[in-house]
Amino acid sequence: MATTRVSWLLRCTHTWSIQPQTLCNRNVTTLTTTGTIFSRRRTSYVGVSMAVKTKEEEIVLEEEKKKLQLGIAEFYDESSGIWEDIWGEHMHHGFYHPDSTVSVSDHRDAQIRMIQQSLSFASLSEDSTKWPKSVVDVGCGIGGSSRYLAKKFGASCVGITLSPVQAERANALAAAQGLADKVSFQVADALEQPFPDGQFDLVWSMESGEHMPNKPKFVGELVRVAAPGGTIIIVTWCHRDLRPDEESLQPWEENLLKKICDSFYLPAWCSTAEYVKLLETMSLQDIKSADWSPFVAPFWPAVIRSALTWKGFTSILRSGLKTIKGALAMPLMIEGFRKGVIKFAIITCRKPEN
Ligand SMILES: C[S@@+](CC[C@H](N)C(=O)[O-])C[C@H]1O[C@@H](n2cnc3c(N)ncnc32)[C@H](O)[C@@H]1O
């Protein structure tokens, strides 16, 4: 099941298949364009190499993708109820002011602050003439962001998630908050979004990118569904940028990330610089990124504290094995941030008008 490289430009940090292109000969069935991000010796650029995959390899890749998606769906089906019970409707980090003392009640405010800071970073907060009228929430959880954005902008929002439990709960919460005519949720894959091209003024992905096994396809879909002039906001977990003399992370760093991947249903990670390169190759405008790791530092210690309460502990035990496994991996996130391997990144850009 060897992969034959037709064009091997440089060794890559990550390789992601984009889509099958052409049928080839009898042994080698499909020629696949592979989006490849190179970071060797700081001559970093996003390139495209051609890889030839056998039918068997394609079947294996497809099976791996399905297994990952099933794991993600089951993980969130199982754990979303207890998260909502303890933490509320937002399933993402909070944005904290460094050096400030954090009280327990501040955590939900900090999650709202994360949304506000993200909008402001993308210059969407102040000028109401720029407010989006239509939003897609890619990897929507139980829809906290969508409902916030619908209320703030008066926009119509559609959210997608792999978890049927989340989609149902998100719709129920929208109805309960009188937003059913503005906001809706469905089960759909971010890598094959069920929307026409150019539909949304704001494409919002809050902590879902880390679950995507194919980053070029993920970003490609975000760009495809964005309207001309529309804004794309990606807030996501990344690994640190590689130094000029590095070709990959250190083995201990890879090991740490692998353990986190196994517990949270994540594929290979990429760096913020790699996201930026991807967006650059797609000719997007106003590309900006920032490392917000210092602003999220109080989050995981607080999640662990809430898990160690009687309510948290018994709820986790009742939820099932996937939730227990996820809870056990939480200290690894703290370690990853503390050692600088994990970065909490925001990346924003605008699709050109034409
Ligand atoms: C950590 S939760 C974030 C939820 C939400 N954005 C929030 O901030 O509350 C990750 C979400 O990404 C979704 N997700 C992961 N992979 C996905 C995919 N391929 N397609 C659609 N949703 C996906 C999960 O179902 C889950 O809803």
From TrEMBL:
Gene3D superfamilies: Vaccinia Virus protein VP39 (3.40.50.150)
A GO molecular-function descriptor: S-adenosylmethionine-dependent methyltransferase activity
Presence of keyword Methyltransferase: yes
Chain positions covered by the region annotation SAM motif III: 225-234
CDD domains, per database record: AdoMet_MTases
Keywords, ordered alphabetically: Methyltransferase, S-adenosyl-L-methionine, Transferase
Pfam families: Methyltransf_11 (PF08241)
Family affiliation: Belongs to the class I-like SAM-binding methyltransferase superfamily. gTMT family.
Protein name according to UniProt: Methyltransferase type 11 domain-containing protein
Organism of origin: Vicia faba (Broad bean)
Organism phylogeny: Eukaryota, Viridiplantae, Streptophyta, Embryophyta, Tracheophyta
